[in-house]
Amino acid sequence: MATDQREGSLEAPTRHPLGHEKAEFWDEEALYTELERVYDICHGCRRCVSLCGSFPTLFDLVDESDTMEVDGVARQDYWKVIDHCYLCDLCYMTKCPYVPPHEWNVDFPHLMLRAKAIKFKKGDIKTRDRLITSTDTIGKFASIPVITQTVNAVNANKATRKIMDRTLGIDPDALLPKYHSRTLYKRDAGRKPLEAEIEKTESTSGKAALFATCYGNYNEPHIGEDLIRVFEHNNIPVILAEGTQCCGMPKLELGDLDAVTAARDTNIKVLAALVDDGWDIVTPVPSCTLMFKQELPLMFPQDTDVQKVKSAMFDPFEYLMLRHKGNKLKTDFKNPLGKIAYHVACHQRVQNIGMKTRDALQLVQDTEVVPIVRCSGHDGTYTIKSEFHDMAMKICRPVVNKVKQAEPDYYTSDCAMAAHHIEAGLADGSKPEHPISLIRRAYGI
Fold first, then answer.
1. Which residues contact 36 (CB under 8 A, 6 or more apart)?
2. 349: helix, coil or strand?
3. What is the strand order of the sheet 313-314 is part of?
4. Three-state DSSP class for residue 374
5. Euclidean distance between CA atoms 320 and 165, whole angstroms
6. Cα Rg of the chain, angstroms
7. Listed residue (380, 106, 395, 155) closest to 251, CA to CA
8. pLDDT level of residue 180 (50, 70, 90 thresholds)
C-alpha cells in the first residue's frame, strides 16, 4: 500500500452516476472483478456487519473458505451476498470510510445494483419477484371493489398463506399490506384545493403537489388524506399529481432498469410540468422521495427535467420544518402526544436532511420522542420472501426491543411498511401510527 493512502476519509461522500449506459457496466467478467475487489475491502474492514444480511453472509463465506480470504470464496457464492442487499444505502452513507472521494471508490449498494441488473437482463428472475414488484398492476387489480375483500381475506388466511409459501415463496408469517377499494385518488376526487394566498419561504414555494405513491394510493390512503389536512391547516394548497405511476424503486431493487426508465419517462414528464408551474413535490414514502432525489438523478445525470424534479422534491416533514424555519408553520397544537417511539427509516436517513420528523413532533407540547436509528429490515419486498423473512425479523429485533423498552404511547415510522414490520415483531396487538397522522391528531383537525 502506498504511503499516501489513507485508512479512511473524513470528507463528505460523493456519488458517481450509475453508468448503466456504458457497455462495461454490463460486462459480467468485469463485474466479478469489481465484486472481488470490493468484497476484499469489506472483509478487511467489517464495520458494516450489523447493518443487514449481506455483510455477515460475506464474512461467513470468507471465514469458512480454505484460504480465509475472498479468493477462497466460489464465484457462485458471491450472489448470496448480493441477494441480501436491499439497497438501503446505509453502508454508503453512514458506515463505509472508503466511499468516494476516497481513492478506493467503494459504492457497495450500486455495485449490488449493477449485479442485480446483469442478473435480471440474463432472465434469472423468479416469477414471484416480477409479480411483487409490479405494484401498480397489483394495486389496480386489488382495489377493484369486489376483489379487494377477497384479496385481503386470502392474505390473512393461514391455509392460503401456506399455499402461497409453497407455490410463490411468500412467507406465511409475513404481514402483507391491506388494499382499499377507495383509493386516495378516489377519496380526493371531490375535494377542492385550498384557496389561500401563497406564502413563499426562502426554499419553499408554498404550494405542494402530492406524489401519492402506490402504497399511499392503494394500501394506506389515510396517510395522504392526513398529509393534505396538515398541509392545508398550514395554508399550503395541495393537489394530487395526476397521471403518475410507481416511482420505480421496487423495479430498481430487482435490477429491472428498463422498467425504471419507463417509470421515469411517465413520472418526470408530469412532475417537471408541475415544477414549471410553481409546485413543490412531496411524497409520503421515504423510498419514493429518495428515488427522485438520488437514484433517478444518478441514473440520468444529463436529464435536465430529472434534475429539476430532484430540486423540487421534499420529504413531508422536511417541507414542514422548512416552513417552520420561515415562520410559516402553525404550532397551535391542541393535543399532546405523550411518548413516541420513532423509528428513523433508512431511506429517509440517507437523504441527509436530519431528523425533521422528530423535530416536528417535538413541537407538540408534552410530547417526548425517542428516536430509534436502526434498520427495520423490511425493504418492501425482502421480508415477504420465504427465504429472507427470518433474516428480516432478526434485523428488526433490536428495533422491536427499543420500542418495548420505551413503553410509548405511540410507535411510528415515516416508512409505513417498516412500522408494520415492527408491529409484526411486537406481536402484541398494538398498531403503529404514521407521523403525519400523529401531527393531525395533535392539531385536532
1. 70, 71, 78
2. helix
3. 238-240, 208-210, 280-282, 313-314
4. coil
5. 42
6. 22
7. 380
8. very high
Count Cβ atoms below 10 Å from residue 377 Cβ, excluding itself: 28
Give the C-alpha separation, 312 to 322, whole Å: 13
Which residue type occupies 284?
P
C-alpha cell at 122: 440474463
The H-or-E segment that residue 371 falls in is strand 367-372
Statement: the pTM of the whole predicted model exceeds 0.85: yes
Number of other CB atoms surrounding residue 406 within 10 Å: 17
The domains of the chain, with CATH numbers, are 23-121 (no CATH), 331-443 (3.40.50)
- Residues in the chain, overall count: 445
Count Cβ neighbours within 10 Å for each residue of 97-107 and write b for 16 or more, e otherwise. bbbbebebebb
Half-sphere exposure of 419 (CA within 13 A, CB side): 21
Angstrom distance (rounded) from CA 291 to CA 300: 12
Phi-psi region of 368 (alpha: psi -120 to 50; beta: other; left: phi over 0): beta
**Is the predicted pLDDT of residue 1 greater than 50, yes or no?**
no
Cα torsion 174, 382, 391, 15 to 10°: value is -150
d(CA 312, CA 271) in angstroms, rounded, equals 9
Give whole-number Cα distances, 279 to 168, 172, 271, 314, in Å: 42, 43, 9, 11
Segment 279-322, tens digit of pLDDT: 999 999 999 999 999 999 999 999 999 999 999 999 999 999 99
